[in-house]
Recover the amino acids of this structure.
């Protein structure tokens, strides 16, 4: 069931990559341009801040629309129960667990985006995204932008223990972990391997 959910979740990144949208976690790869001094620190942080806030607004709006649409009532309210369970579980994660799961998550997400660079067709990009994203969802890793939707929609469904404070307490370590996973373990590592001295063989 988790594998199926992961495959369905892949649609989000597929839409971002193919349609040219902006995703905070994927934009952690801009660190490669920063390391090559093509982007200043100010512009890097401005991009991250702007996209993070935009993703948050979009996720909150989507949660509200899903709630108002009656979607949570599907399957005799099974969707609502799942939303409550997911949100309650996420806000109970200890800081370090949330951080490390964020690291692992965005390592896979940014590897998926990196693989897309090698793909020259839409179908190739879709295939490149499918397996890493399915893996992170199936393994239960933490994605800050996904949590911007999952925790609020769980709150709207009546999840216990979900408040503004516990929502923020989850987003902080997960966001930091996402930055480390995407910016350090993928962007800086691949920059060091391939781009640090591009003229050398």
């Amino acid at each position: 069931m988790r594998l199926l959910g992961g495959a369905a979740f892949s649609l989000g990144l597929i839409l971002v990559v193919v349609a040219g949208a902006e995703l905070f976690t994927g934009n952690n790869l801009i660190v490669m341009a920063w390391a090559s001094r093509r982007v200043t620190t100010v512009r890097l942080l401005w991009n991250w801040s702007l996209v993070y806030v935009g993703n948050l607004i979009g996720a909150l709006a989507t949660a509200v629309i899903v709630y108002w649409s009656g979607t949570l009532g599907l399957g005799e309210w099974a969707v609502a129960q799942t939303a409550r369970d997911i949100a309650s579980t996420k806000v109970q994660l200890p800081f370090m667990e949330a951080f490390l799961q964020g690291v692992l998550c965005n390592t896979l997400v940014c590897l998926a985006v990196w693989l897309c660079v090698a793909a020259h067709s839409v179908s190739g990009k879709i295939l490149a995204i499918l397996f890493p994203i399915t893996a992170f969802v199936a393994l239960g890793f933490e994605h800050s932008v996904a949590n911007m939707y999952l925790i609020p929609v769980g709150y709207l469904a009546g999840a216990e223990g979900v408040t503004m404070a516990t929502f923020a307490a989850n987003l902080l370590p997960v966001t930091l972990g996402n930055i480390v996973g995407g910016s350090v373990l993928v962007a800086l590592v691949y920059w060091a391997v391939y781009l640090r001295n591009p003229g050398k063989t």
